[in-house]
Amino acid sequence: MTVTTHRTSTSAGTRTGARTRTGSGARTGARAELLRADGTAVRVLVVDDEDSLAELLSMALRYEGWQVRSAGDGAGALRTAREFRPDAVILDIMLPDVDGLSLLGRIRRELPDVPVLFLTAKDAVEDRIAGLTAGGDDYVTKPFSLEEVVARLRGLIRRSGAALARGESLLVVGDLTLDEDSHEVTRDGVSIHLTATEFELLRYLMRNPRRVLSKAQILDRVWSYDFGGQANVVELYISYLRRKIDAGRAPMIHTRRGAGYLIKPGE
Q1: What is the distance between the alpha carbons of residues 52 and 69, in angstroms, rounded to a whole number?
Q2: Entry pTM
Q3: What region, left, alpha or beta, does residue 201 occupy, with left being phi > 0 and alpha being psi -120 to 50 degrees?
């Protein structure tokens, strides 16, 4: 599906409308299905005050099998972001109640790591620079193809670690890579040798990036049973992993006192 734009004059000035041209038949080229670490569908928030355009984008994303919510203004976007907890956001830079750049900052306070794709009719270099400088991860200017938006969004979601492609054996968090088939682990290209238990613990952490996992959850998933209350075995193996993964590098494995452990890209 391709979206072209036309200009219509209103009392508020010149706006960008949309019309579509669709073709028949299935999508060309097979693409791996993206899923969240818990196996559920990817979540995307679309923020655009043009209802027809927001609906077209939502339709294209649902065609990918993703869950989609939309909002037409900044207030609605913030409310939906808090409730929906999206894995990615498509954000129009021109909204009726707030500037898209300002809204980005508010969204990032709620969801610090969520990737954001700016959507704008502005194509001046300074506008693109402003969007990226403000923290946007990528941008698409109108007119655009829905295929391009989806492709860019897939790339952002994959790089953020929020979702994995079904059937792929590689888990990637920052510069850390784990191959589930070959059991090879590397960080920044350097091979890391792990025992079988260390590998399973790291795999569980990497399948849930930026998510705090309790000792009980880790015991159940990695050891498959309760260690008779000996949860210190988790602490022991976390320390083993830190020595191998984090030694001399920006730390990736973090402790949340009283809650558990999480892994995220080194900063």
Answers
A1: 14
A2: 0.55
A3: alpha
